[in-house]
Amino acid sequence: MMLLLVAATAGxxxxxxxxxxxxxxxxxxxVLGRGKFVAVVRGRAIHERDLSRGDATAETMMLADALxxxxxxxxxxKEEVAREFDLLRWQFGDDERxxxxxxxxxxxxxxxxxxxxxxxxxxxxLETSIAPKLSVTDEECRKVYGETPQRFVLPRxxxxxxxxxxxxDGSPNELMLEKRRLAQGLSIRLLAAEDFxxxxxxxxxDEATKLNGGDLNYFSDRxxxxxxxxxxxxxxxxxxxxPVRSRLGFHIVRLTEVLPESxxxxxxxxxxxxxxxxxQKRATAVEELRARMKSSSxxxxx
Length: 302
Description:
Elements: H1 22-31, E1 37-41, E2 44-47, H2 58-69, H3 78-90, H4 95-105, H5 109-130, H6 138-147, E3 153-154, E4 157-166, H7 173-191, H8 196-203, E5 215-220, H9 226-233, E6 244-245, E7 249-259, E8 262-263, H10 266-301
Antiparallel strand pairs: 1-2, 3-8, 4-5, 4-7, 6-7
Helix pairs in contact: 2-5, 2-10, 3-5, 6-10
């Protein structure tokens, strides 16, 4: 599937990640022995050693142990564990790679499920512990909105469809020439009044859009290939381009709509602001909890 364009700005709601700060994701990663946080893939935090126990810091283990013993999580269901297990397995691409990673780390599926159940207890108790500190008021949101209005502006957005012929940079010259000729032939068929959507379904090599008339939905120029945007800017609405070369291949582009830059109202921006503030409070609350537990541990020693 060709990941050409991001059609919409990702929202905060619905994320699989409970804690968005790098530090807090490192904590969860260390609790699981998964190493430092390195990336987010499809909403999941990826750590250096997702399937091995590694060495966690004493402070992290203290925090995890206290959370593990605290009340709040209740019983973790087999379904919850299975969901986490499947999401982790998905990150490896296929069952063979996943099995190889398990074998290399000396971990069995059963022990990994036990580890994930423990992780869910820690995560849920952590969430319960800090939840009272995460509420965000309307006044706080309005303050952010008023102080930084430039952050809440939607850029100019395009809506377009394309017929795509794959010929990425570095392809052999013979293949590049063949694909160029194919794209030119498709362009001629459109000039002869063939239906764009039907031709996209027949010939486009973008599997994500070909059965939807090549529709790419709405996107800004920040979210698309520069050559693609340059071609769009030369088109009038409902006009179709000749083949356009990008680093991915050739595109025949039809512009369907242009939306000008526009400011979001407070009501439109409130959800994003509230989520951002909640995440800031979450990071602070986790840090405070960590500091309290460290102080309690030190006091108990004296």
